[in-house]
Amino acid sequence: MSRFKLANVVTDAGGDEKTTPLLYDGDAALDVESGALVVRGEVDFLTYLNALSACKWRRYAGLTKALLHLELSGSGEVVVRAVATGADVPREMSRQRFNGPCEIDIPLDLEGEDLMGFSLVSHEGSEVRLARGWYAAEVDEDALNHVRIAVSTTTFRNERYILPNIQSVKQGIAREGGALADNFHMFVVDNGRSLDAASLTDDVITVIPNPNVGGSGGFARGMMAATEHEGEFTHVILMDDDVRILPESFVRTFALLSLAKGRYRDAFVNGAMLSLENPTRQFEDVAHVIKSAAYCRLKSDLFVDRLSDVLENERADVEVENAYGAWWYSCIPVAVIKRNGLPVPFFVRCDDVEFGMRNKPVYMTMGGVCVWHASFEGRYRPSVDCYQYTRNFLAMIAMDDCASERAFMLRFRRSMRLSLRDLDYVSAEFFLQGLEDYLKGPDFLARADGSALMKENGARNERVADVSELDSDVLAQAGVTPEVLSNKSLDFRGSRLRSLVRTLPYDKHYLPEGMVRGRVGYVVKNAGTVLEGHATGCETIVYLDATREHGAIRRMDRARFKEIRRREARVMREYRRRGSEVRAAWKAALPRFASREFWERYLAERA
């Protein structure tokens, strides 16, 4: 039997003081020169990044015992605390005095516990210094799973993120050393071909110049590199470039993969996305596609500086039907890629969702396996959120039979109506273009220049401006007050009556001009969801995005409305006439799209 590290005690999450509540609660400070954490009084480490998820280690690896190793100086006590299954508050499990410098090992009994952690208490007149700490388990080395990890990140002229991330990964892996360092490599797929591949490539990093084929193509290229030589890697972690990395995530992922038992040996591991703007807000770890044709998070926002939310996060069941994990941090077994193929060339949007629908994985998650990513609020782009979404989601339904196409089309028609009511002609047009291009079939996708299409469509997005640049008189008429602008809530409390009314097929464009002339309103929207506002019967609408910092003034255009409705009627006739035929074509195309031969040719044609 030998000790196997489960997780480090993290004392620095990148130097951002906003992340401190994820590390510890109390009076402590990092000594930058020595790397030790200096503790005064009582400091609690039963936190998102430093608690041990006893319930998950039991479930995934069958562990019932663990230990806490601490390297300390000064005089004080270690207090082990745990939250039992079904409980909400921690209780004291043990208390041990120390007078350092010393190394102490404290046994942990995981049975009946969901979360375990510790506090450090310095004795009066003394300060305690925590040099290092980790959780470990005694394991049979012969029973460990063989794990070799390849990280694949895709970047496009985003040096301000990717260069620090490369440095962070190299430093983190070197600092950890041991089995992880011996079984780790990172592929940086450079879709912009702007990195100095020769100077950045070394024993840990390989930079691969690539044509701009979007996230789908970049991740496909990374998967191809990781599967090029038989047995070289066992798992691929797909990771966005525009994230802040926590190298500890690799440590915990490696431990999970090495110790997983039974059905979890072949599981995916998905990291959580925390918000860069609000680093204690967890947005998502695993989501799923519901039969009524929408994707939904399995957990609502969790603020993981709160013990109650940390517990909810660890206890929540992510093993559901039609689950998928977004590719900001998603660990996939190489065997799955070899068996079921590469991503579909969607460029962006739904590539990760489709991959989940096709493979139907079991997911493992764990606190501290995460990245920080820019929040999605205020990033609405109709060229992506309407066009790419409609085209790709329909193709996914056809290929994987994961949801009701009829339900999707009902949602599509409703989205069209709501966009037009809010005078959002751009979104309505992109919804229609998405359906039109889906009806062109899979050969359109195989031939399309995704980069040129994204650029062309992006130029047609609605131009939003800083609110301070919008006409102040129109804002005042609309009722956009300082109170409206200062309210940053993303909560949506729609009533059933309101939802029903918004579903009805009415539209103010059909009203006589005299009934709407001069009326001004506003809407605050988070993507397609109206958070606040009153725009019924208004000729002019002030649109505000979810941040309430940017917006646009929209004015009724009856001629454009009529053309959109005529175009909608035409494309719906074609859909009714050819829908079954097109769906079958997409279904038949999946094996081709997922093949290595297709991707080798696709990338070569765009090189």
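the 2nd protein, sequnce then structure:
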Amino acid sequence: MGAEEEQNPVVRRALLRAAVAVPAAGAAGMALSGPTPAHAQPRAAARGGRFDPRSPRFALAVLPDTQYLFDADSADPTPLRETFRYLAAERASANIAFMTHLGDVTEHGTEDEIELAADTFRTLHGKVPYSVLAGNHDIRSSTDDQRGDSAYLAAFGPARYASMPTYKGASPDGYNTFHVLPAGGREWLVLALDWRVSDKGMRWAQQVLDTHPTLPAVLTTHDIAWADGEGRATLSGNGDRLWNGLIKGNDQIFLALGGHNWPPGRTVLTNDFDNDVHVHVTNYQDRYYGGAGMIRTYGFDLARGVIDVETFSPWFLSREPRKRSALEAETVELTGDVDRFSLAVDFDERFAGFAPIPVPAPRPPSAVMPRGTLAYWRFDATGTRAPGAGGTPVADGVVMRDLSGNGNDLTVSRLHAGGPEALTWSTDHHLGQPAHASIRFDGGKNPDRGAILTTGARAPLNAEKFPRGYTIETFIRLPEPFEGDHDWMGVLSWQGRSGDAGKTTGWSPLEPTCSLNVSPERYLQFVVYPHRQDADPTSWSHTVPVGRWMHIAVVNDGRRTTLYVDGSKIARNPSQPSTGIATLGKPFVLGATSFDERFGQGFYGSMGDTRIVGRPLSRREFLLPAD
């Protein structure tokens, strides 16, 4: 932070060089109750290891102003060396992709300070790739990136990064660099921009973005925002220039990070594409020991659609808790709202404007009928003679052909008060589904209504006993919002009563011999009355999501039944022996479950490709492509 720069009064304050004020009780320095974060677990030894660029979970480490650790004759690089040792040791376990420094590496930018800092950064060299940018204390603060040579440029210019695989280039002046990170199965762009970017530097940054038009970008610079005491961030004068001249017009930039000012804060701005840009100011130089090499980690979780942010000091963390001083103990981790938080980001949706996910081409039926396929239905032109336009009704009497050739065609009919809207065509589908089509059911209660698809009276599937096991697969999507009473709605079933099969166990002798249902908690329930055993082994899933396509697979190996959701085995699978299905020669049904061979409510949701195979399939044989 520079005294010559106009600052908001909230952040204009004197800093006690030897120590800073202790936070009041209840401030951000206090530890949260609950499980200890992963970074806070004691380490017996450094683990090291390799970074996994394919994992959907990875971290970006952010290091703000370290200037008080490199301040003339009071310099102490020890905290930062420990931070770098931590990042190197934890790179594999935390899957750390990159580290970026936000400027003000040193206090005065002298050759001695810069040399000591450059030597300290060598602790990280070759272990974790990184970027550094100039803050106002590292160079003459009255200049921009056209200032020419400096001690900073000699130590932290392009030559420092040349051996790093992530480094891809620098502006002609050398003060701005860009880096491309392989992480989460894709590439990400990091722009490291000088404390004051010239018009030439802005044009260079735009050229970098134009040359990498499909890469999500994180912009880092020294001065982008300031925050009030509540952590609400506002663009600084320089930040406003960057916003108007570079950020808001480039949809790729979704995260902009700066230091320089304190306290930390954050805000969300809307760019020209009506998308969110998260702007964060991060600086801990005002805290005990000049921030003690404190880092902030941005934990990207592409599977959950979140970025989890944590702030802590590896130097203090490395010490035994009982040996930490009072100030060390309260600064080891910061847990206030601006230091530890999660950002909800639908990455696919946020990046769709410049990097849409390629939709796989439809797979022909012949490609998805493994040995033992008994029935396969899909709702595109290959599965029926006359699929309608999206949103139009599927008429009663429409036949969905069994593409296996085994004669298990399905015929559409309405239930009770089901009108035309009870079953409609749709082009919506799971991205991994072979066919790019589905049907949407609008079933419900009070009054009972819906639609079903049933096999004919003589279909072979009606009497199939599955002595060698089976695999039943389908794709479903529950609507969002999930409105109305749909407790215990059926997804698929065989008609026929368990009592008629001679089964004495189970909930009721009127229950169907096999069904997949949705409970009031939105648990999937698969219950089967085996052909051989007098039992009703039942699988229960977790609460399944709404508004998202899912692949469901039930696999029986002739002894046990296992339910999978999106290729993951669920926890509550029964250990009861289960061989075959007591089908009783009754029709197979999509869209409802019968009770006493009578249907109540119909399914509420969308359904895609459905397949039944007369043997257990491995995960790699599922309709859902394996990762």
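DSSP finds ten helices and 34 strands in the chain. The first strand starts at residue 57 and ends at 63.
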